[in-house]
Amino acid sequence: MHAKQAVDYHGPSPPLSHRLFSLKTKSANEKPTMASFQPIDMAIANPKPRFARDPETNRSSRHCLLQMANYDGSHNYPYCWGLTIFRTAYGSDEAFTKAIERLNMYAKAWVYGDLARMPREEPKDPLPVQELWNRYYSEIVEDPALSGADVEEVGRRFDAWVKKNFDSTGKRDVPNARFRFCLMLDQQSIDTILAMPEDPESLRDDPPKDKRWIKLVTGEQWADRGWPNRGRLWGRAGIPEFWPMWFAIEDPDFIYEEQGWAEDQWSETNGALNFWGIPGIDW
Fold first, then answer.
1. Where are the domains of the chain?
2. Spatial distance between the Cα atoms of 276 and 283, rounded to a whole number of angstroms
3. Do residues 232 and 152 lie in contact, with contact meaning Cβ atoms separated by under 8 Å?
4. pLDDT by residue (tens digit) across 19-68?
């Protein structure tokens, strides 16, 4: 089997401020923020094949763009991808900022990984990758009242955020992963991110990579899935593998029940799933 060629993921991208928006404590009457992105160009997301079985039409970056292309007006984040990040550790602003920047680097590395090619394979069109990365937009919720908050409190804050930014009238389904789960950056998550190599390309030389995870908090209670005493459904996700979940969460039942593993699947009280490491070895 041929090894894939290395990819330069440091391609053109907008300034950091265009992709991250920090939300300080807001009043209940303040209008929610509206992300501003143009509709997706279908010539990029779904181009006509140049010939039979054209591999360019089956690129993962194009599939991701297609997934974001539909907008029904039910929410304030059209034509973009990313998460709401709840900060619960306030010891060091510098460490938090560095953790966010490091997290961005891994998101970008994942996106630009679509340019990897086999030896003698023709170069891939960089346009869909650039387009996908330019539409990355996450928000940071900073509120000192969240200092030391647990999963349940972050979950309640996330529920309120979803209610404010998503119109579920007419029994609309949740439009995308932004409204299914959020990131919780406590001190453990910040330390974990900062322990990752600055250069994602060097990750293969980083032995502890499979033992590092951050917290995802969903908008669900385990009671909705038949476990009334487990509380909030949340998970531990490996950083390199985390980003593809955004585009795979259209089927949350499969993600939560088939891909996520509980340390003790019969526990009445453990609400955590694991999306990292190896069952039976790492946990």
1. 72-275
2. 9
3. yes
4. 455 444 443 344 455 678 999 999 999 999 999 999 999 999 999 999 99
Instruction: Tell me, letter by letter, the H, E, C secondary structure of the chain.
Output: CCCCCCCCCCCCCCCHHHCEEEECCCCCCCCCCCCCCCCCCHHHHCCCCCCCCCHHHHCHHHHHHHHHHCCCCCECCCCCECCEEEECCCCCHHHHHHHHHHHHHHHHHHHHHHHCCCCCCCCCCCHHHHHHHHCECEEEEECHHHCCCCHHHHHHHHHHHHHHHECCCCCCCCCCHHHCEEEEECHHHHHHHHHCCCCHHHHHHCHHHHHCEEEEEEEEEHHHHCCCCCCEEEEEEEHHHHCHHHHHCCCHHHHHHHHCECCCCCCCCCCEEEECCCCCCCC
Instruction: Please name every residue paired with 221 in a beta bridge, in sequence order, or none if there are none.
Output: 232
Instruction: Provide the terminal-to-terminal Cα distance of the chain, rounded to the nearest Å.
Output: 31
- Return d(Cα 83, Cα 205) in angstroms, integer: 28
Q: What is the pLDDT of residues 216-245, one digit of tens each?
A: 999 988 778 777 777 888 988 888 777 888
Cβ atoms within 10 A of the Cβ of 188, count? 15
CB 66 within 8 A of CB 39: no
